[in-house]
Amino acid sequence: MSFTDKVVIVTGASSGIGAAIAIKFAEEQANVVLVARNKAKLTEVAERCQTLGAKTIMVIADVTKNDDVKKIVSNTITQFKKIDVLINNAGIAGKAAIWDGNAMEVYDKIMSTNLRSVVYLTNLAAPHLIQSKGNIINISSIAAVDVISPQHFAYCTSKAGMDHFMRSIALDLSGKGVRVNNVNPGPVKTDIVQSFGVAKADVGNFWKKAEEMTTLGRISDPSEIGDLVLFLASDKARAITGSAFITDNGALLKRNTAI
User: Fold this and answer.
1) Does the pLDDT at position 84 exceed 90?
2) Residues forming a β-bridge with 230
3) pLDDT score for 212
4) 189: domain CATH number?
5) How far is CA 103 from CA 48, 82, 91, 107, 108, in A?
6) How buried is residue 196: exposed, middle or buried, by Cβ count under 10 Å (0-12/13-18/19+)?
7) Contact present, 154 and 94 (Cβ < 8 Å)
8) Which domain of life is it from (predicted)?
9) How many C-beta atoms surround the C-beta of residue 97 within 10 A?
């Protein structure tokens, strides 16, 4: 699965799933555009990619800001002249029930980050992807197909929207030679748990309970998601578009059998 000289944009690349995806592409000698807000963490990932022989650029950007999204695409084209793969990974969670006073504040913030930014970045990158006959992979969630908690209605809604957005643009872009797919992880050991409202002191217990919620009795490492993304972006997946790939260690199976 050589990605030599392919240009790959990865948002949310400073940690967790995004960092793992960036490193996987670096291992395959891709040119990686690393996007995130945290410069210090992003620099660490860039240095790791460079030690693997990859060419990288960093774009310090907030994907909820239009000018920053424009900067992602313009910096990529200035440096590498093309875009072959777009990985929309940046995302946040937040906790609020629909009757809470801050429900709309949480909703707007999550939808702006998890869905609107994906739509806008895809809009700007699409002409370049059509030219390169590239592909798009969005990091969604099992929350797109099953409600994980009433207090995470905004997160679930954003991921459900992402899945349907993927199918909609896959239908449009297929005829132009561009494939679009989603990866829908279950529990993955990253620091996103803190934005789900888990206190640092409770993180260990949270992951233990998460393991118990799967049929395989385990949770994924970010590198496992990176492996799947790498496959979907490769020519080995040339027949796959408009699909959402669940990778959750059987979490949905266990939820369904518990009903």
Assistant:
1) yes
2) none
3) 86
4) 3.40.50.720
5) 39, 40, 18, 6, 9
6) middle
7) yes
8) Eukaryota
9) 13
Residue type, 251: A
- pTM for the whole thing? 0.93
Q: Is residue 69 part of a domain?
A: yes
- Cβ(188)–Cβ(141) under 8 Å? no
- Cβ-proximal residues to 129 (8 Å cutoff; 6+ apart), any chain: 83, 84, 86, 135, 136, 173, 178
The residue to which tokens 């789900």 are assigned: 196
Sheet holding 244-247: strands in order across? 56-60, 31-36, 7-11, 85-88, 135-139, 179-185, 244-247
Q: Which domain holds residue 52?
A: 7-257
- pLDDT one-digit tens code per residue, 149-194: 899 999 999 999 999 999 999 999 999 999 999 999 999 987 766 5
Please choose, from the candidates 123, 152, 136, the residue with its C-alpha nearest in 3D space to the C-alpha of residue 244.
136
Catalytic residues: 155
